[in-house]
Design goal:
41% of the residues lie in helices and 11% in strands. The protein is built from 14 helices and eleven strands.
């Protein structure tokens, strides 16, 4: 079984160095300057993994703009994208305006850190405070979370929009497990190796997701999905996870690839606990390396307190490196048709008073009318609306693909194609 020291050392390796922390702090300061320039009286806040300290080297920084006074988030996103472009601090911008929560995504040029920014949705900061309190209460939460985030990320199962498990839902799952074990006193709380194995066993083999939901709120760990209206006739296999901040919200309902997630958990359980698998590794190979594969980011990283720890030294014999396909994106991507003559909103010091001051003057309509469509086509990729219909089509496509490949995979560790079958305990 994977050792406690191996998990702790790997988490130290993932933890940000002082230089990385300083670079992220500077990036946040730079982005906040642009936001405050447009809306001087607004209140931008960081939330998510950067605020809780549970971020990976590749994690985004989540920001919400509160009290901006704008009535239309789409207009605000457009204004912010223009300002970031004019300041020259952002690249690979995507404006996703017709999602349930409209956001702008971009990479801050100097640090290379990705940002997700939204407007006037305050549940993110509230959730971050809940998680920070949970980390203080459950010291095991941080190392387990980091290991599992890397595990899911390497299998493309960490993004909710593609059916994976998001960070908030994952944390709720871990907390629920820790609460349940604490009450039953089934495992020593300090044994991270046993806790990791138990997580894979519980969510990969034992939990009956058809009928039972998971909660980390107060002392109730499980509930009948039907009692909260969380059952789905078309997708009964979905995991249901009660949002600890909003109990009537199911934060697992969009993880439509849970069959693949469950299968990956089951394979991880076998790799970490099967005596034959462990003995076959030999004395010089890492047990944790059977579920964590070297990828380009991890291989290039120099971590640890002294900055001289490498992945190869930390998890020897972890297997062949994973390959990533990162295509270059255009500078600005939008999913709505905009009028380039529309003035940018600019706050005058009052959060509730947003005037129509433009960063540039209107050009003559005679020239603009002839070239407006051409300019939009050349400079902006207007993509399909990310509405509920689009998500539904994406989900159906993904489910068909998983059905076709249900018995195919690249290797026994769940990388590449994922198994479509899983054992369903009841």
């Amino acid at each position: 079984m994977v050792g406690v020291a191996e998990i702790v050392d790997f988490c130290d390796f993932l933890s940000p160095t002082p230089e990385e922390q300083a670079a992220r702090d500077a990036a946040v300061h730079s982005v906040f300057d642009v936001i405050k320039y447009i809306w001087p009286a607004c209140r931008p806040e960081v939330f998510g993994s950067f605020r809780t300290g549970l971020y990976l080297p590749t994690s985004d920084i989540d920001v919400v703009i509160l009290e901006s006074g704008i009535k239309n988030p789409q207009t605000g996103l457009y204004a912010l994208s223009r300002a970031l472009s004019q300041r020259g601090i952002a690249k690979k911008m995507q404006v996703i305006a017709k999602a349930r929560v409209p956001i702008i995504k971009f990479v801050e040029k100097k640090s290379g850190v990705a940002f997700d920014i939204s407007f006037d949705v305050d549940n993110g900061p509230k959730a971050a405070e809940f998680i920070k309190e949970a980390v203080l209460k459950w010291p095991q939460l941080r190392p387990l979370c980091l290991i599992l985030k890397v595990f899911l990320q390497q299998r493309d199962l960490n993004e909710v929009y593609s059916g994976g498990i998001g960070s908030y839902a994952l944390l709720a799952m871990i907390i629920a497990m820790l609460q349940n074990l604490s009450e039953s006193r089934a495992y020593p709380e300090h044994n991270l190796g046993m806790l990791l194995v138990h997580f894979f066993d519980f969510y990969g083999r034992k939990l009956n997701t058809v009928d039972v939901g998971v909660s980390c709120k107060e002392r109730g760990t499980f509930f009948l999905k039907s009692s909260k209206g969380f059952s789905s006739k078309g997708r009964p296999f979905l995991i249901s996870i009660e949002d600890p901040q909003t109990p009537d919200n199911d934060i697992g309902k969009n993880s439509f690839n849970y069959i693949q997630i469950r299968s990956a958990f089951g394979m991880a359980l076998s790799n970490l606990s099967n005596p034959k698998n462990i003995l076959a590794l030999g004395p010089n190979r890492s047990i944790l390396g059977t579920i964590i594969r070297p990828d380009p980011v991890l291989l290039e990283r120099k971590g640890g307190s002294s900055g001289d720890v490498t992945f190869s030294n930390l998890l020897p014999g972890a297997g062949e490196p994973l390959q990533t396909l990162n295509g270059e994106k255009q500078d600005i991507l939008c999913n709505w048709q905009f009028d380039d003559e529309e003035p940018l909103p600019r706050g005058n010091g009052n959060a509730g008073d947003v005037s129509a001051q433009s960063s540039g003057r209107k050009r003559k309509s005679s020239s603009k009318g002839r070239h407006k469509k051409k300019k939009i086509k050349e400079n902006v990729d207007v993509t399909k609306d990310w509405d509920e219909e689009t998500f539904s089509k994406k989900e159906k496509s993904s489910r068909k693909k998983s059905s076709r490949h249900s018995h195919k995979h690249k290797d026994s560790n769940g990388y590449g194609y994922h198994h479509g079958g899983a054992s369903w305990s009841r």
